[in-house]
Amino acid sequence: MRATPAVIDELRSTLKSRSDPRLAEATRRYFPTDIRALGVGNAEVRRIADALVKQRGLSPEDCLAVTEDLLAQATHHEEVLLGFAMVRKAVGRAFDESLLDRFRYWLEHTVWNWAQCDDLCLTVMYPFFLARTPAITRIQHWTRSPSPWCRRAANVALVKFVSRDIRSSRYMLPREVILGNARQLLSDPEPYVQKSVGWLLKVATDHHREAVVGFIQENISRMQRDTLRYAIERLAPEQRKALLALEPKQP
């Protein structure tokens, strides 16, 4: 099966039939810029995708084809999420590392808010990397992408791999990758990229506390206030207080 227009029309029609105007309005208020939302929750979006995959017996390649067409035609927020939902269960057992190029393309050309970015990272890229841990460190160059969502994903996609039990062993994300990403993006002007820097550093304090604290001390003059506060959230109160005291005073 290819991603025929009939399949895409069926998915979009089903999605619209589950819409809730009140949820759509709440979703629109959730984002700083106006978006087109149908008002379908994430769990329902995934149920729609799973039902179609099961009903039609789609192969991983079929799922990817549907995803590509959905993303190319998406006009509403939930249609992007539906595209990711269609392929999320296929990436763990199919495809090779060239799929990273598709992930980057989607981030740079089809994602338009932080929720879509994070959905791709945490529901699609996460199972992809679980099955291919050597590929985890191969997205560092995304920090230089022209897209803020791709730059955000360079951090968000790594958060669950700072330290993780995978099968019979523990995977530890190299400290150099964590601090390298943070260093590259410390001066990034986009607030959602800055939030991703703080998020990655915060999780890293559980496993590389001395290195992260040293990084903050070394770079505190370059750190934005929200990034700093997010990064130190899990430190002891006295350590947080000491680091905040180093923050340059605002004029």
Automatic annotation (TrEMBL):
Q: What is the lineage of its organism?
A: Bacteria, Pseudomonadati, Myxococcota, Myxococcia, Myxococcales
Q: Which Pfam families match?
A: DNA_alkylation
Task: List, alphabetically, the InterPro entries matched.
Answer: ARM-type_fold, DNA_alkylation
The protein's name in its UniProt record: DNA alkylation repair protein
Domain of life here?
Bacteria
Which species is listed as the source? Corallococcus exercitus
